[in-house]
Specification:
Blueprint (H helix, E strand, L loop, with lengths): L3 H33 L5 E9 L4 E9 H12 L9 H14 E5 L9 E8 L2 E8 L6 E6 L10 E7 L4 E6 L5 E5 L1
Parallel strand pairs: 1-7
Antiparallel strand pairs: 1-2, 2-5, 3-6, 4-5, 6-9, 7-8
C-alpha cells in the first residue's frame, strides 16, 4: 500500500516531466523571436579633431545590409549594391546631403569635404572632414538613411576637446547643438 508521501512524490514526478517540455518549448519560442527580430537600423557618427592634420574628421558607420537596403529604397534601384564603387559613392553623396554642420550662432552651414566610403567587415564607413576651425557652438543635423527607415536612430559622438558629447537623432529630431 502506498503512503501519502510516495503518492506525493509520484505526482511531483509527473508534474516535472510534463512541465519540462512545456518550459523548454516556451523558452525556445522566446529565444527564437528575439533571435529573428530585426533590430532598429542605427548609424554611429564620430567627430574628432586630428592634431596631425589640424582637421576635424567625421566618420559615419552604418550596418552594411541596412545601408544597402536603404539606398535601394531611396534611389529606387533594387539591384544597387554597396560592394560596387558606384553604390558606395551614392551612399556617400546621400550622407553629404543629409548630414550637416552649421555655426550655432549664425546658422551658416560649415563646408564639409566628402573624402570617400569603404566597407569594413559588416559595416560601411563614409568619411568627411572639415578643414577650418569649428565655432564655439555647432548645430548638427543627421538624417542619413531616414528617408528609407523613419525609425533609423543616428548617434553622434563628438570629441572636440577633453570631453565626449553624444547626440541621438531619432523620430522628428532635426537640429541639435554641440558646445566646444
Amino acid at each position: 500500500m502506498k503512503t501519502l508521501r510516495s503518492l506525493h512524490q509520484v505526482g511531483r514526478k509527473r508534474f516535472t516531466y510534463r512541465f519540462i517540455p512545456l518550459s523548454l518549448c516556451l523558452s525556445f519560442c522566446l529565444f527564437a523571436s528575439a533571435l529573428f527580430a530585426h533590430p532598429t537600423p542605427k548609424g554611429l557618427t564620430t567627430i574628432e579633431r586630428n592634431p596631425n592634420t589640424n582637421t576635424v574628421e567625421i566618420v559615419h558607420r552604418f550596418h552594411l545590409h541596412d545601408a544597402e537596403e536603404a539606398m535601394q529604397v531611396i534611389l529606387s534601384e533594387a539591384d544597387l549594391t554597396l560592394d560596387a564603387l558606384e553604390g558606395r559613392a551614392q551612399l556617400a553623396l546621400h550622407v553629404e546631403e543629409t548630414f550637416q554642420l552649421a555655426d550655432g550662432e549664425t546658422n551658416v552651414p560649415l563646408s564639409l569635404v566628402l573624402v570617400g566610403a569603404e566597407i569594413k567587415g559588416e559595416n560601411v564607413l563614409v568619411f568627411q572632414e572639415y578643414t577650418d576651425g569649428l565655432p564655439p557652438l555647432v548645430k548638427v543635423r543627421h538624417d542619413a538613411l531616414r528617408d528609407a527607415f523613419p525609425e533609423q536612430v543616428n548617434t553622434l559622438n563628438a570629441k572636440l576637446g577633453s570631453r565626449v558629447q553624444t547626440l541621438v537623432f531619432r523620430d522628428s529630431n532635426k537640429w541639435k547643438t554641440l558646445k566646444q
